[in-house]
Amino acid sequence: MNQQIQKLRDQFSENDDFFMLQDSFLGTPVVLLGLKSLIDVVPMKLSLQTYHAAAIESHITLDAFKKVLGEADEAVGAHEIYGSILNGKLFIYFEADDSFVIMDPIPRALNRSIETPINENVMQGSQSAFTEDIATNVGLVRKQLQSDHLRVHTHTIGTEEAKDVALVYYEGRADMDFIRRIERQFAQNKNKTIENLQQFSKEILGFPTWSMVSKFNQTELPQEAAHSLRKGRVLLFVDRLPLALVTPGMLWDAFCLDSDRNFPLPLMLFLRTVRVLGALATLILPGLYVALVSVNPEVLRIEMALSIAQTRAGVPYPAIIEIIFMFVVIELTIEASFRLPKTIGPTITMVGGIILGQAAVQAKLVSNLLIIILAATTIANSTIIGLQQSLALRISKYVVVVLASMFGVLGILEGMLLICGYLGSLTAYGIPFVGFPNAKSEANRG
Amino acid sequence: MDKSWQVALMYFIVHLGLIFFMYPGDIIASTQDGHWIPIVLGFALHLAALSLYLKGLFNWGNNDIIALYMKAGKGYAVLFLLPLAVYFFMACITVVRCSAEIMTIVMLSSTPLWAVMLTFLLIPTYFALKGITSIFRTGVLIGMMNVPIILFFFSFSFQNIDWRYVFPMIGKASFLTEPSYLESFFVFAGGFLFLGFIQPHVAFRKRYVILAAIALLPFFIFSVYIPLLTFGQSTASTFNFPFIVSLDTISITWLMFERITVFLLLSLISFLMLFLSLSLWSTMRIVHAGIPALKPRYLLVSIPVLVYVVCLAIPSWTDIVKLFWWNTYLRFYIMAAIPLSTYFLASRSKKRMVRS
């Protein structure tokens, strides 16, 4: 037997899902090699038989039959053969002339079908969501955006552990410098391994690790992805990740959805205003409570100040401790409801939110008003788009709260200024995070 | 990339931040009647200096004034850039000290002054460390948040006015020699100089900045006239910050807040912080040009530290006023010399370029 086959068998000897079948095509003996876990063997054999029967009927030569089966590239090295078997390909070895064919067999169904989005809700928009399979995802984008300007570049990154990454952009609208920069990064870091997005963003693309805001805006929705392509953004797909990474991420992504445009304009504006208000309320409300209660009660009308003081009567510690304490409880509730099975989630929310809150008020541990502020903040927090953005917002409100406890209303302003300054300073390869994707400059690009 | 509207917005809000504190008091103190004359005169001088400066900058092309003076010769650089750096430094000190003082008076009576001044320096330093383009983007965000607040309270400040206080419209020209009138030029001198430093990083068009300057005229006029029309000249002249006092008289029944002045003040402070970050950054540029061995990053940390130390060393409000007055000579020198020299040096270099 050929050396190469021997070597392959040795390499796969510890894998029980490896198969090696003897067969004969047009009178010459062949060996079929592959992985049972990736190839559905019975239908594969059936289809090979069909090919074979057709070949006998039409009296074609062995060489022509090889071409029918798949690519017969003599120059392919042992490493590529190994990789293609791992990738789910069928390796057919012809013993007579020591040649081989790598064939695309019938794969096992290891991908889920296209479903509705799980982490994002769509109001009046396309309902299909990205899946784990990178080809399906690119296909979904192609379906959504049927244009001859759409460009797809696929890269396989990692030597020890290979991962497919696809870069999709709209030629003529995307910033070509940006795309060249990404391609260069891919080429430079071709051998590194991608295990997760943190590594992907740091090792492959070279973005800073300690950034509160991700350089990618993640979306599950082909409609949003296509919209960002039209706006000149770049999509990155990583195989086995049911998300499109829209890069560069921008601030306005947190407030604007493309499916908003399926509503009449005034309704769209209303929705977006609500989101902006939600973000502002999340940042300001807790800080305002702390500032008004503990530092600047004189800013309020006297009636209001009195009623606030009344709700706090009997609370034994300063407002900052009170609010941090309750926020920790809320954070725990949110995290727990993520972890728990869907059936128990609502129970926890009820126990945590209503019973605990009410009990805490009745035990005079926290004030009534704080519970209202807390609920309002938590709800407002969820109005903005994207889990990551909402998480970043959730964390940044603490900056405001702490500063407010020291400097009162001025502290709120300082917190907001710091946040503005931080957002203003973010860039991805020179493209600012706070920027309007404007049509005029898009036209000049490319 | 063209960032005209960012620059225009920045110009607008930086001036808004400067106008409402000292300016009304100075103008009201400078004359008995016909206040619009000193305001318009100051504004016209400001506009003239600005357009001369811009003309010079655009003749010079896509570069900053440090390069202009350096090219003209070391002597020019020392003659113009050194006073400019000192002026920016002094402006930082006065702004930080004044605004911290006002803040402690108005709302933070129990917070120590050093803590307030510290935050007033830390935040602009943070902005400046992030770079000039980042300052402008931050400016846009802050402007979008705070300009509506300013406009809202500004429009409500007309609540208690009596238009008869406008008269007499014509006053004497004696204000020209009043120290307080000369001090009022602080508003005009500080804000426009940063335009000369941003050019290679942030490109802009002349027209936008001029429009932003013209849009400021109503604010200049009404910042003085609102306290005048609310209290009358004789009462208004007794206040240190007449506009802020007149805002304290406003009551908006449906608002749950008693003292809306606080919110106006906060917006103004946020604009002042942008002004500070621009000034710190410009000072850093000048010092860096003088001593290139010092790294910009270290300079941006050490200049605020110096400002902070000086601020701590100023014992009282009367000393700030004195400092402000000493600054006046430098201010007029800067306001006249920088635009003029920029204009002449730039046109000279342009002529040379054409000849060669």
UniProtKB/TrEMBL annotation, chain A:
GO terms for biological process: spore germination. One of its GO terms (cellular component) is membrane. Pfam families: GerA. InterPro entries: Spore_Ger, UPF0353/GerABKA_families. Keywords: Membrane, Transmembrane, Transmembrane helix. The chain crosses the membrane at residues 276-295, 315-332, 344-363, 369-387, 399-424. The keyword Ribonucleoprotein does not apply. The keyword Cell wall biogenesis/degradation does not apply. Belongs to the GerABKA family. This is Spore gernimation protein GerA. It comes from Paenibacillus sacheonensis.
